[in-house]
Specification:
With about 300 residues, the protein is an alpha+beta fold. Helix content is about 40%, strand content about 15%. It folds into two domains: about 15-105, Phosphorylase Kinase, domain 1 (2-Layer Sandwich), CATH 3.30.200.20; about 110-299, Alpha-Beta Complex (Aminoglycoside 3'-phosphotransferase, Chain: A, domain 2).
Length: about 300
C-alpha cells in the first residue's frame, strides 16, 4: 500500500520571533513596523518591514536555499530583465530557535496576478514571453562548478516520473487518469533540449507575478532559479492564460513542439504535486491547481 505523503515539520514563525531576528541582526532596521502578509505563499512567511522592505522566512527545509541564491544571482540578472525582480539587501542567520537562513529584500508594490485580471490579456502574455526571452538571453557564466553549479543545475522531467504516476493514481476520479497518463508518457518521450543551457525561473506561476494598474510589474520568488531546459517555465501558460493568450505567448516566445510538450508535462507534474499536498486543506490551491492540470491536458 502506498504510504501517504506528509508535509515536513515546520517551525512556528510569529511576529515576536521575526522582531527578535531583525532587531538583533540588522540594527539599522530595529523597531521598524512589522506587518504580516496574508495570505503568503506555501514556502515562506512574509512580513513587510517598514515601508520599503520585506522579510521572508522559509516555512520548510525545501525553501532554505532561496535567500542566498537570490542574493548571489538576482543583482546580476536584474539589469537585463524587462520586469522588476526582488532586490535582496541582506541574509539573516538562524537564531532564537529558528533553524534556517532568511532574507530581507526591497518591498515590491503590486497585487498578485490573477486569471480574472490577466488571463485573457494577449498583452500580458507577450510581456511574460519577453521576460523569458530576456532571461534566457543572459549568458549563464559563472554558474558551473562546485555547490553553486549543483544548486542551479536543471533536473530532467523524468526525475518526477514515479511521483507523478503515484499522483495520477491518487486523483483518479477527480481528473481523467487516462488522459493524464497519455500526456505524461508523451512529455517524457518528447525530444529533449538540444541547445545550450539557459536560465529559467523554475516556479513560474501566477502566485509569483505582481501587477499594478492592470499590467504586469514584477516577477518574484526565484528559489527555483536554474540553468538548463527552459520548458519548466511554460507552466505559466497553463496557470494564467486562456487559449487565445496562450497562443500569443507561444508565438512571441517561439516555442517548438517538443519544448511545448515538455512544458505541458511540467505543468501537469507540478500541478499534481501541489494538488495532492495542499488541495484538501487549501481551497485556493485546489482551484489554482485544478485549472493548471485541466489546461495542461487541453494544451
Amino acid at each position: 500500500m502506498e504510504t501517504k505523503r506528509t508535509v515536513d515539520a515546520r517551525p512556528q514563525i510569529g511576529e515576536a520571533l521575526v522582531r527578535r531576528l531583525v532587531d538583533s541582526q540588522f540594527s539599522q532596521w530595529a523597531g521598524m513596523e512589522l506587518k504580516l502578509l496574508d495570505p503568503a505563499g506555501s514556502d515562506h512567511v512574509i512580513y513587510r518591514l517598514g515601508e520599503e522592505l520585506s522579510v521572508r522566512l522559509p516555512r520548510h527545509s525545501g525553501a532554505i536555499g532561496q535567500a542566498r541564491k537570490e542574493l548571489q544571482w538576482l543583482p546580476r540578472l536584474a539589469p537585463h530583465l524587462p520586469l522588476a525582480v526582488p532586490v535582496p539587501v541582506g541574509v539573516g542567520e538562524p537564531d532564537f530557535g529558528y533553524p534556517w537562513p532568511w532574507a530581507v529584500s526591497r518591498w515590491l508594490d503590486g497585487e498578485v496576478a490573477t486569471v480574472d485580471a490577466l488571463g485573457d490579456s494577449p498583452g500580458a502574455a507577450v510581456d511574460l514571453a519577453r521576460f523569458l526571452v530576456a532571461l534566457q538571453g543572459v549568458a549563464p557564466e559563472g554558474f558551473t562548478g562546485g555547490s553553486a553549479g549543483d544548486a542551479l543545475a536543471g533536473r530532467p522531467l523524468s526525475d518526477r516520473d514515479r511521483a507523478t504516476r503515484v499522483a495520477i493514481a491518487e486523483v483518479d476520479g477527480v481528473f481523467d487518469a487516462t488522459a493524464m497518463t497519455e500526456l505524461w508518457n508523451a512529455a517524457l518521450s518528447a525530444p529533449g533540449w538540444d541547445r545550450s543551457p539557459v536560465w529559467f525561473h523554475g516556479d513560474f506561476h501566477t502566485g509569483n507575478l505582481l501587477a499594478r494598474d492592470g499590467r504586469l510589474s514584477a516577477v518574484i520568488d526565484f528559489g527555483g532559479l536554474g540553468v538548463g531546459d527552459p520548458a519548466c517555465d511554460l507552466m505559466i501558460a497553463f496557470t494564467l492564460m486562456s487559449a487565445d493568450s496562450r497562443a500569443a505567448f507561444r508565438d512571441a516566445l517561439g516555442v517548438d513542439d517538443a519544448t511545448w510538450l515538455r512544458g505541458r508535462g511540467w505543468a501537469l507534474a507540478t500541478g499534481l504535486n501541489a494538488y495532492t499536498y495542499y488541495a484538501a486543506v487549501n481551497p485556493r490551491v485546489a482551484a489554482q491547481t485544478t485549472r493548471q492540470i485541466t489546461q495542461a491536458l487541453i494544451g
